[in-house]
């Protein structure tokens, strides 16, 4: 850098500084030309570089936006698929619940019907049992009453005559059968 500043200082000491002419010092003129060109390039190049960087950023943003939209569409598709599957599970679940409910109701009705039949059979059995017990008690009472009446009406003589008459009837029956 010292050479560059020396060349500017050197320009101020030219003997023909007041007149127009050619500088034949190649090093000094090249450095001046290079510094002017670099200054112009830097001055105008900043805007171009900045614009290029902005355009690259916009392109990158557009690419990222496109990828994001694509992923969003894929996610929406998956969401719709999952929602349809959930609806299908829900419908199947409700159908299964209704089917199980109807099976339970039918089973309960059958069980109640069987219990009602068992109850009626038990009632009929207990009624027949009670009727048989009452008949047996009535028969026993009638028999005891008849025996009591016979015992009170029969005396020993009548009793012997009845026995002899029955023996005679059995004997006559035996003769007929022989």
TrEMBL record:
GO terms for biological process: proton motive force-driven ATP synthesis. Residues 58-92 form a coiled coil. It comes from the Eukaryota. It is a single-pass membrane protein. Its main location: membrane. The chain crosses the membrane at residues 20-44. Keywords: ATP synthesis, CF(0), Chloroplast, Coiled coil, Hydrogen ion transport, Ion transport, Membrane, Plastid, Transmembrane, Transmembrane helix, Transport. The gene is atpF. One of its GO terms (molecular function) is proton transmembrane transporter activity. Pfam families: ATP-synt_B (PF00430). F(1)F(0) ATP synthase produces ATP from ADP in the presence of a proton or sodium gradient. F-type ATPases consist of two structural domains, F(1) containing the extramembraneous catalytic core and F(0) containing the membrane proton channel, linked together by a central stalk and a peripheral stalk. During catalysis, ATP synthesis in the catalytic domain of F(1) is coupled via a rotary mechanism of the central stalk subunits to proton translocation. It is found in: Membrane. Belongs to the ATPase B chain family. One of its GO terms (cellular component) is proton-transporting ATP synthase complex. This is ATP synthase CF0 subunit I.
